[in-house]
Design a protein that fits this description.
Among the domains are: 2-26 and 85-249, no CATH class; 314-390, no CATH class. The chain has 15 helices and two strands. The chain has helices spanning 2-37, 44-48, 87-105, 108-112, 122-146, 151-170, 175-210, 218-243, 247-250, 255-277, 284-299, 314-324, 350-355, 357-366, 379-390, and strands spanning 51-59, 62-69. A hairpin with a 2-residue loop joins strand 1 and strand 2 (62-69). The longest helix has 36 residues, at 2-37. It is elongated, with a radius of gyration of 26 Å. The two termini are 40 Å apart. 29% of the residues are buried.
């Protein structure tokens, strides 16, 4: 019953995380587009009111005029009906942390710990998980505070920080756990930017405007800096969110490097759209991003398995499956923590093994399955399954 309820919690929190993430990233994309597409106001009276820039748009059968005031309107009160974009960020982060707890903390032995990488107890792994998230934010925030106005240097150091975190996490956790923690680190930085800098800075500016005091522009500058950083983190985070469905990425022995290349490609593609909103078409940016992904596809291609060797009988394969896979991939799993077979894949009968032969051969050969090699499958057994599949994956001999 406990595993069953955990599955429901996973489903519902994941659904909430997806909904909130769409709302947050959608708002981020929209406001970055708006900010980089602004044009000087056409009416002199708008400029006198403090309008910095404006953008006309059409959507859903209506026409809109968005105007930006750097430090609020001049000689007129600020409306009390302000819309604040914050709960999308907070809900995304809280639901993401909920998923991290449900999947990777409660299931630390299965999903977070890989004893071939580092021998950890569940408590140690959870402590390391929390520590890396806090440390990632603390170092990033320290860099931003001390390098304000030195954007090129800051961007370079933030990139080094993320890459170092990516490599370090792969030395601590399972490959899948490492990937998701890189995403959690970036997501924590993004949400903390909103909570500690963007929203408090905006509140200070609003308070000064309503009190009739001179408005300090620095909180707005800080908020803009952190908002720009957040928009470049979005595509890497989205890739990480879906990567757990594709073990060919994180289960590769160079998984950390693959993630680094995919993140760079995401940043290049995002930069293209940011500049495009400003009227600058830099086609080399998406071309470079696509080229990097294409290079990965070529370099990661699996080596063909020699099918001309000794014939592998199905009974040999079935014996490996029963010894190494059935504990989880059965109608009634016996492995602790599984109320149902992962992804509904059952391997109890010859028909089921034949049905899932391609995916089984891929995940076993890549090292992704069994999870963290909990059942201690050997390299010889992995090769046996790969050869059987290359020979046609017959189940009747």
């Amino acid at each position: 019953m406990e595993s069953y309820l955990l599955d429901w919690a996973n489903l519902l929190v994941r659904w909430l995380h997806l909904i909130a993430g769409i709302a947050w990233i959608g708002a981020s994309f929209y406001f970055v587009m708006l900010d980089t597409s602004l044009r000087p106001p056409k009416k002199p009276e708008d400029a006198k009111r403090g309008v910095f820039g404006e953008l006309w748009g059409v959507h859903g059968g209506g026409f809109y005029c968005s105007q930006k005031f750097l430090t609020g309107p001049k000689d007129e009160p600020l409306t009390m009906d302000l819309h604040w974009s914050k709960w999308e960020a907070y809900t995304t982060w809280l639901s993401g942390m909920g998923m991290l707890a449900i999947v990777y903390w409660v299931g630390a032995s299965s999903y977070l710990i890989d004893k071939q990488v580092m021998v950890l107890t569940p408590g140690m792994a959870i402590l390391a998980s929390v520590t890396t998230l806090v440390a990632g934010w603390a170092i990033y925030d320290l860099l931003c505070r001390n390098l304000m106005g030195r954007d090129a240097l800051l961007a370079g150091l933030v990139f080094i920080l993320v890459m170092a975190g990516n490599w370090l996490l792969h030395q601590l956790f399972s490959a899948r756990g490492a990937y998701i923690h890189v995403g959690a680190m970036l997501g924590t930085i993004m949400a903390a930017n909103v909570f500690f800098h963007i929203i408090p800075g905006q509140k200070r500016m609003v308070a000064q405007i309503r009190a009739g005091q001179p408005v300090d522009p620095r909180p707005g500058m800080v908020g803009k800096q952190r908002s720009v950083h957040n928009t470049y983190f979005t595509l890497p985070v989205l890739f990480i969110m879906i990567s757990n469905h594709y073990p060919m990425t994180y289960a590769n022995k160079y998984g950390w490097l693959i993630l680094a290349v995919m993140m760079i490609a995401g940043v290049l593609i995002r930069q293209f759209f940011v500049l495009r909103h400003r009227g600058q078409l830099k086609w080399w940016l998406p071309a470079a991003g696509v080229a990097l992904i294409g290079l990965l596809i070529v370099l990661m291609a699996p080596k063909p398995v020699n099918a001309d060797g000794d014939k592998v009988g199905f009974e040999s394969v079935r014996a490996v499956v029963q010894k190494r896979c059935i504990a989880c991939h059965a109608a009634q799993p016996t492995w602790e923590g599984f109320a149902q077979p992962p992804k509904g894949v059952m391997l109890e009968t010859p028909e089921e093994i034949g049905q899932h032969a391609a995916k089984m051969a891929e995940t076993v050969a890549s090292g992704y399955m069994p999870l963290a090699n909990l059942t201690q499958i050997t390299d010889e057994e992995r090769a046996l399954i790969a050869t059987w599949f290359a020979q046609g994956a017959r189940t009747d001999d």
